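[agent] plan:
  1. take the single chain provided in the ticket
  2. run structure prediction with default settings
  3. attach structure tokens to the ticket
  4. add a short note for the reviewer (M.T.)
[agent] executing step 1
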Amino acid sequence: MKTVPTLRLVLKPDAPAELDELGVADLPAEVRLALTDIAGAAREGLLAMSVAAGMAVMRAMFDAEITAACGLRGKHDPGRTAVRHGAGRGSVVLGGRRVPVTRPRARTVDGGEVPVAAYRLFAAEDQLTAVVMERMLAGLATRRHVAAAEPVGQAVTEQATATGRSAVSRRFIAATKTALAELLARDLAPLDIKVLMVDGEHLAEHLAVVALAITADGTKVPVGLWEGSTENATVVKALLADLVARGLDASDGLLVVIDGAKALSAAVRAVFGAHAAIQRCTVHKRRNIADHLPEAERGWVDTKLGRIFANPDPAVGLRDAKALATALARKHPGAAASLREGLEEMFTVTRLGITGTLARTLTTSNPIESMISIARTTNRNVTHWRDGQMVLRWTAAGMLNAERSFRRVKGYKQMPKLVAALHRHAHPNTAHRPETVGTAA
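[agent] step 2 finished; step 3 output follows
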């Protein structure tokens, strides 16, 4: 077997001498100086060397812009429109930190500052804020940002700023305010929303009421957030009214999936009227009933409830549920009352003719609880919730973070059937549209 020769470049401590050996002695002094910096950074690793090379290229871009505006240095140009005006201090964003740089300046012949587009690009705050946002949402504490930063070389690290806890915190607050504003201003008119899920997330003494929409092709979209309680009809109505104001149209039918709170049903009816079909979450119902039963009784009751709620025939399921409530009434009246409350709304999806995978998806609040779970992971390091505004900011950031990993709901190929069924529900006295309406892409 032949041995493939390996090319190795060993950089000696004397970087200028090394450059002479490489045959670059005839290059201009500026280029030799830049290459000296790069060669020195190479001893700290490939990334540090790349950063040094990038900084050299950046400075060259600054100089190229100034030259384009002012002409070559030392050559008189009677038609020039700008002149060099020394240098100024500035900073650029690099790996989640700010690094000071010297940038060339120029002025127009009438005294105005010549903007350097390359500097504006590299100095943009948005890049630094995005890095901070990503790390915070990944669960990195503010005090750990310096340790998590990429190794960019000792010389750059020693000059870096904007890495302290306060600076990181300020940028994250600004980013989450933007996320909250984006979520609360999202235009819903272009979305063909057919399913709306509403649930709450408890954070200390606060509760955030969140809304997740599912469009006609099965796409999940976070659409709403309100601080309050799911037990309060006023809060929920305010959330739903805000969605309507932003373009949510239920006139052609809307399925609203909620937990067992009575206030939610009342609020949905108040805002959407008869156009909305309400489905109670079967998982919440089973949990609520179990809370009213002794440990020894929970197993068989829950198993029976699982079969009842999974019955594809809503009439038979409702009949069996009423029979179970009657059987429980004498020994466990609390469990029986819990089962009877909102019982008709436990079978809305099957009453619409939806079975199989999509029925299993829409008879529970699992899609919105999954989103809440991802949002909860992003704020696991928060030890003190100062106020409701902080709750809203963090929750909005977590919801938008969760959206990036969304897939269409399980059973989305059945969505055209649901769209047609909702149309019939909203317009019972008119001929329904063909089943092709809302066909998934």
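[agent] step 4 note for reviewer: Residues 46-70 form the longest helix (25 residues).
[agent] ticket updated
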